[in-house]
Request: fold
Amino acid sequence: MERDPQKISAVLADPTRYSIYQYVLVAPDPVSAAEVARRFDLHPNVARMHLNRLTEVGLLRQRTEKTGRGGRPSYVYEPSGSAVSLTTVPPRDFQLLADLLVQSLALLGEGGKEAVEQIGHSFGRRLGQEALSKLAPSLNAANGATGPQALLEACAMALSRLGVSARVIKGPGDRPSLVLKSCGFHEVASAHPEQVCHLCKAMVEGVAQTCAEVPPAVTQAGTVPRGDLECVYEVDGLIRLE
Reply:
Protein backbone atom coordinates (compact mmCIF):
# COMPACT_ATOMS: atom_id res chain seq x y z
CA MET A 1 0.00 0.00 0.00
CA GLU A 2 1.28 3.45 -0.93
CA ARG A 3 1.64 5.56 2.21
CA ASP A 4 0.63 9.22 2.09
CA PRO A 5 2.48 11.04 4.90
CA GLN A 6 -0.03 13.89 4.92
CA LYS A 7 -2.99 11.53 5.34
CA ILE A 8 -1.21 9.56 8.06
CA SER A 9 -0.31 12.78 9.89
CA ALA A 10 -3.92 13.93 9.71
CA VAL A 11 -5.22 10.61 11.05
CA LEU A 12 -2.75 10.54 13.96
CA ALA A 13 -3.35 14.21 14.80
CA ASP A 14 -6.48 13.22 16.71
CA PRO A 15 -5.28 12.49 20.31
CA THR A 16 -7.85 9.76 20.93
CA ARG A 17 -7.07 8.03 17.64
CA TYR A 18 -3.33 8.20 18.35
CA SER A 19 -3.90 6.64 21.78
CA ILE A 20 -5.99 3.88 20.20
CA TYR A 21 -3.20 3.18 17.71
CA GLN A 22 -0.66 2.92 20.55
CA TYR A 23 -3.03 0.59 22.42
CA VAL A 24 -3.41 -1.76 19.43
CA LEU A 25 0.36 -1.80 18.89
CA VAL A 26 1.08 -3.28 22.32
CA ALA A 27 -2.05 -5.44 22.72
CA PRO A 28 -1.10 -9.16 22.88
CA ASP A 29 -4.06 -10.09 20.63
CA PRO A 30 -6.11 -8.39 17.89
CA VAL A 31 -8.69 -6.00 19.36
CA SER A 32 -12.34 -5.43 18.53
CA ALA A 33 -14.25 -2.16 18.34
CA ALA A 34 -16.15 -3.19 21.48
CA GLU A 35 -12.89 -3.65 23.39
CA VAL A 36 -11.59 -0.26 22.27
CA ALA A 37 -14.93 1.34 23.17
CA ARG A 38 -14.68 -0.05 26.73
CA ARG A 39 -11.03 0.90 27.11
CA PHE A 40 -11.49 4.51 25.96
CA ASP A 41 -15.08 5.06 27.13
CA LEU A 42 -16.43 5.56 23.60
CA HIS A 43 -19.58 4.55 21.79
CA PRO A 44 -18.82 1.38 19.76
CA ASN A 45 -19.60 3.21 16.50
CA VAL A 46 -17.08 5.93 17.36
CA ALA A 47 -14.45 3.33 18.27
CA ARG A 48 -15.10 1.54 14.96
CA MET A 49 -14.73 4.82 13.07
CA HIS A 50 -11.32 5.46 14.63
CA LEU A 51 -10.16 1.91 13.87
CA ASN A 52 -11.37 2.13 10.27
CA ARG A 53 -9.55 5.43 9.73
CA LEU A 54 -6.32 3.85 11.00
CA THR A 55 -6.93 0.92 8.66
CA GLU A 56 -7.59 3.14 5.63
CA VAL A 57 -4.12 4.72 5.85
CA GLY A 58 -2.40 1.37 6.35
CA LEU A 59 -1.49 1.62 10.04
CA LEU A 60 -3.78 -1.26 11.04
CA ARG A 61 -5.25 -4.23 9.22
CA GLN A 62 -8.73 -5.60 9.67
CA ARG A 63 -9.70 -9.26 9.62
CA THR A 64 -12.75 -11.30 10.50
CA GLU A 65 -12.97 -13.50 13.56
CA LYS A 66 -15.68 -16.10 14.08
CA THR A 67 -17.53 -15.71 17.36
CA GLY A 68 -18.94 -19.25 17.50
CA ARG A 69 -22.38 -17.82 18.24
CA GLY A 70 -23.71 -17.76 14.69
CA GLY A 71 -24.52 -14.70 12.65
CA ARG A 72 -22.00 -12.50 10.93
CA PRO A 73 -18.34 -12.79 12.01
CA SER A 74 -16.93 -9.84 13.93
CA TYR A 75 -14.04 -7.67 12.84
CA VAL A 76 -10.81 -7.38 14.80
CA TYR A 77 -7.87 -5.06 14.23
CA GLU A 78 -4.12 -5.54 14.54
CA PRO A 79 -0.96 -3.65 13.49
CA SER A 80 -0.24 -3.80 9.77
CA GLY A 81 3.38 -4.77 10.47
CA SER A 82 4.85 -1.96 8.37
CA ALA A 83 6.80 0.93 9.79
CA VAL A 84 5.76 4.53 9.27
CA SER A 85 8.23 7.40 9.03
CA LEU A 86 7.05 10.99 8.89
CA THR A 87 10.15 12.82 10.07
CA THR A 88 12.52 12.92 7.12
CA VAL A 89 12.20 16.15 5.14
CA PRO A 90 13.79 16.15 2.61
CA PRO A 91 13.37 12.37 2.15
CA ARG A 92 16.13 10.07 3.40
CA ASP A 93 16.06 6.41 2.35
CA PHE A 94 17.42 4.70 5.45
CA GLN A 95 15.90 1.39 4.39
CA LEU A 96 18.01 1.43 1.23
CA LEU A 97 21.08 2.10 3.36
CA ALA A 98 20.19 -0.83 5.65
CA ASP A 99 19.64 -3.10 2.63
CA LEU A 100 23.05 -2.23 1.19
CA LEU A 101 24.82 -2.74 4.51
CA VAL A 102 23.17 -6.13 5.05
CA GLN A 103 24.15 -7.20 1.52
CA SER A 104 27.72 -6.11 2.24
CA LEU A 105 27.81 -8.20 5.41
CA ALA A 106 26.45 -11.21 3.53
CA LEU A 107 29.34 -10.97 1.05
CA LEU A 108 31.80 -11.28 3.94
CA GLY A 109 30.65 -14.84 4.67
CA GLU A 110 31.55 -16.20 8.11
CA GLY A 111 33.40 -13.01 8.98
CA GLY A 112 30.26 -10.99 8.38
CA LYS A 113 28.18 -13.44 10.43
CA GLU A 114 30.60 -13.16 13.35
CA ALA A 115 30.50 -9.35 13.11
CA VAL A 116 26.68 -9.38 13.20
CA GLU A 117 26.74 -11.61 16.28
CA GLN A 118 29.30 -9.42 18.05
CA ILE A 119 27.39 -6.20 17.35
CA GLY A 120 24.08 -7.83 18.38
CA HIS A 121 25.52 -9.05 21.68
CA SER A 122 27.05 -5.66 22.43
CA PHE A 123 23.85 -3.73 21.68
CA GLY A 124 21.72 -6.26 23.56
CA ARG A 125 23.89 -5.94 26.66
CA ARG A 126 23.46 -2.18 26.52
CA LEU A 127 19.68 -2.54 26.32
CA GLY A 128 19.73 -5.01 29.21
CA GLN A 129 21.79 -2.70 31.41
CA GLU A 130 19.36 0.16 30.80
CA ALA A 131 16.39 -2.04 31.74
CA LEU A 132 18.08 -3.42 34.86
CA SER A 133 18.92 0.07 36.10
CA LYS A 134 15.21 0.95 35.91
CA LEU A 135 14.17 -2.26 37.67
CA ALA A 136 16.99 -2.26 40.25
CA PRO A 137 14.82 -1.28 43.27
CA SER A 138 12.32 -4.10 42.71
CA LEU A 139 15.03 -6.65 41.96
CA ASN A 140 17.03 -5.70 45.07
CA ALA A 141 13.89 -6.06 47.17
CA ALA A 142 13.62 -9.71 46.12
CA ASN A 143 16.25 -10.69 48.75
CA GLY A 144 18.17 -13.52 47.14
CA ALA A 145 17.60 -15.13 43.77
CA THR A 146 15.52 -13.31 41.21
CA GLY A 147 13.52 -15.84 39.21
CA PRO A 148 13.29 -16.18 35.45
CA GLN A 149 9.87 -14.52 35.18
CA ALA A 150 11.05 -11.20 36.66
CA LEU A 151 14.27 -11.28 34.68
CA LEU A 152 12.48 -12.04 31.44
CA GLU A 153 10.17 -9.10 32.13
CA ALA A 154 13.33 -6.99 32.30
CA CYS A 155 14.38 -8.45 28.94
CA ALA A 156 10.97 -7.59 27.48
CA MET A 157 11.28 -4.01 28.73
CA ALA A 158 14.71 -3.73 27.13
CA LEU A 159 13.55 -5.07 23.77
CA SER A 160 10.61 -2.67 23.63
CA ARG A 161 13.23 -0.10 22.64
CA LEU A 162 13.26 -1.81 19.23
CA GLY A 163 9.71 -0.70 18.51
CA VAL A 164 8.08 -4.06 19.21
CA SER A 165 5.60 -5.27 21.79
CA ALA A 166 7.47 -7.86 23.88
CA ARG A 167 5.78 -10.11 26.41
CA VAL A 168 6.54 -13.21 28.47
CA ILE A 169 4.65 -16.49 28.11
CA LYS A 170 5.07 -20.03 29.44
CA GLY A 171 6.64 -22.19 26.76
CA PRO A 172 7.17 -25.96 26.55
CA GLY A 173 7.68 -27.53 29.97
CA ASP A 174 6.53 -24.27 31.61
CA ARG A 175 9.79 -22.65 30.57
CA PRO A 176 9.43 -18.89 30.12
CA SER A 177 9.60 -17.67 26.54
CA LEU A 178 9.99 -14.17 25.19
CA VAL A 179 7.53 -13.26 22.43
CA LEU A 180 7.92 -10.28 20.12
CA LYS A 181 4.57 -9.43 18.56
CA SER A 182 6.16 -8.12 15.38
CA CYS A 183 9.56 -7.76 13.77
CA GLY A 184 11.21 -4.44 14.59
CA PHE A 185 13.12 -4.57 11.29
CA HIS A 186 10.45 -6.14 9.10
CA GLU A 187 11.12 -4.14 5.95
CA VAL A 188 14.78 -5.20 5.82
CA ALA A 189 14.29 -8.63 7.40
CA SER A 190 11.75 -9.70 4.78
CA ALA A 191 14.47 -9.32 2.13
CA HIS A 192 17.36 -10.61 4.27
CA PRO A 193 15.87 -12.95 6.92
CA GLU A 194 19.04 -14.94 7.56
CA GLN A 195 21.19 -11.94 8.43
CA VAL A 196 18.56 -9.89 10.28
CA CYS A 197 17.14 -12.82 12.29
CA HIS A 198 20.70 -13.75 13.29
CA LEU A 199 21.22 -10.17 14.48
CA CYS A 200 17.96 -10.20 16.47
CA LYS A 201 18.84 -13.51 18.15
CA ALA A 202 22.23 -12.07 19.11
CA MET A 203 20.53 -8.99 20.60
CA VAL A 204 18.18 -11.16 22.67
CA GLU A 205 21.18 -13.20 23.83
CA GLY A 206 22.97 -9.99 24.81
CA VAL A 207 19.97 -8.77 26.80
CA ALA A 208 19.58 -12.16 28.51
CA GLN A 209 23.30 -12.33 29.34
CA THR A 210 23.07 -8.97 31.09
CA CYS A 211 19.99 -9.97 33.07
CA ALA A 212 21.40 -13.31 34.28
CA GLU A 213 24.24 -14.47 36.51
CA VAL A 214 25.21 -17.22 34.05
CA PRO A 215 24.68 -16.77 30.28
CA PRO A 216 21.40 -18.57 29.46
CA ALA A 217 20.69 -20.59 26.33
CA VAL A 218 18.48 -18.79 23.81
CA THR A 219 16.62 -20.72 21.10
CA GLN A 220 14.91 -18.93 18.22
CA ALA A 221 11.63 -20.86 18.04
CA GLY A 222 9.76 -18.62 15.59
CA THR A 223 10.41 -15.58 13.41
CA VAL A 224 8.03 -13.27 11.56
CA PRO A 225 10.29 -12.81 8.48
CA ARG A 226 10.30 -16.60 7.97
CA GLY A 227 6.53 -16.85 8.03
CA ASP A 228 5.66 -17.27 11.72
CA LEU A 229 3.03 -15.09 13.36
CA GLU A 230 5.43 -13.89 16.07
CA CYS A 231 9.11 -13.95 16.94
CA VAL A 232 9.56 -16.40 19.82
CA TYR A 233 12.72 -16.89 21.88
CA GLU A 234 12.92 -19.72 24.42
CA VAL A 235 15.28 -18.84 27.26
CA ASP A 236 16.81 -21.53 29.51
CA GLY A 237 18.74 -21.04 32.75
CA LEU A 238 17.69 -17.45 33.43
CA ILE A 239 18.38 -16.64 37.09
CA ARG A 240 20.21 -13.87 38.91
CA LEU A 241 21.72 -14.18 42.39
CA GLU A 242 21.78 -10.99 44.46
Remarks:
- The two ends are 51 Å apart (CA to CA).
